[in-house]
């Protein structure tokens, strides 16, 4: 009997050992995983697969409403992050130009003629630029959704839908070469979650 009990116990030891080793490995790798590279997936799309279109910034501004409110607040939220945050406005914008610093563990760079990540004036520019816009939109929508979730219950669904359909607007300078009026004022009024 004693032999059978010991034998039965020993059958479970490998499973326990594997579970313990897995737990210890996960705990040991947690700091490494926390510093892992950021995946650029783009903003989420609806379950039906429809991707919201980017809108002309002039149209977005003239219509106002939840999308405009969230766009302005999400930009402000991104810009308020610390300059050392790789997912903040300062560093993400730096991918497209200055400052010429490493982003997302992309490798050390020297400033001896290195013009940053963006291949302006090269054939590679258009295929390079789309993932950059996807990253920016991904962060913009993330911040917009976080802000939308703070609106009072009676407005929340409307603002959540606006956040999910928000994409980075564009300026169609070929149809109107004037600087968009919405980019000129130092202050802009929008509806915020707490009503102020």
TrEMBL record:
Keyword list, A-Z: Metal-binding
Name of this protein: Tyrosinase copper-binding domain-containing protein
Alphabetical list of InterPro entries matching this protein: Di-copper_centre_dom_sf, Tyrosinase/Hemocyanin, Tyrosinase_Cu-bd
Keyword Hydrolase in annotation: no
Tyrosinase copper-binding domain segment(s): 120-137
Organism expressing this protein natively: Photinus pyralis
Domain of life: Eukaryota
PROSITE patterns registered for this protein in UniProt: TYROSINASE_1
PANTHER family according to UniProt: TYROSINASE COPPER-BINDING DOMAIN-CONTAINING PROTEIN, TYROSINASE FAMILY MEMBER
Classification lineage: Eukaryota, Metazoa, Ecdysozoa, Arthropoda, Hexapoda
GO terms assigned for molecular function: metal ion binding; oxidoreductase activity
């Amino acid at each position: 009997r004693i032999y059978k009990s010991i034998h039965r116990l020993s059958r479970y030891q490998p499973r326990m050992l594997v579970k313990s080793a897995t737990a210890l490995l996960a705990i040991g790798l947690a700091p490494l995983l926390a510093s892992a590279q950021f995946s650029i997936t783009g903003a989420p799309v609806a379950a039906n697969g429809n991707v919201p279109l980017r809108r002309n910034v002039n149209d977005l501004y003239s219509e106002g409403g939840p999308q405009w409110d969230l766009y302005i607040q999400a930009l402000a939220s991104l810009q308020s992050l610390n300059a050392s945050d790789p997912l903040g406005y300062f560093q993400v914008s730096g991918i497209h130009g200055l400052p010429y610093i490493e982003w997302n563990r992309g490798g050390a760079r020297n400033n001896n003629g290195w013009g940053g990540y963006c291949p302006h004036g090269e054939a590679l520019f258009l295929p390079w630029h789309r993932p950059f816009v996807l990253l920016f939109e991904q962060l913009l929508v993330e911040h917009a959704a976080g802000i939308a979730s703070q609106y009072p219950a009676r407005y929340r669904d409307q603002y959540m839908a606006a956040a999910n359909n928000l994409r980075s607007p564009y300026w169609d300078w070929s149809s109107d070469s004037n600087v968009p009026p919405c980019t000129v004022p130092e202050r802009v009024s929008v509806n915020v979650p707490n009503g102020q």
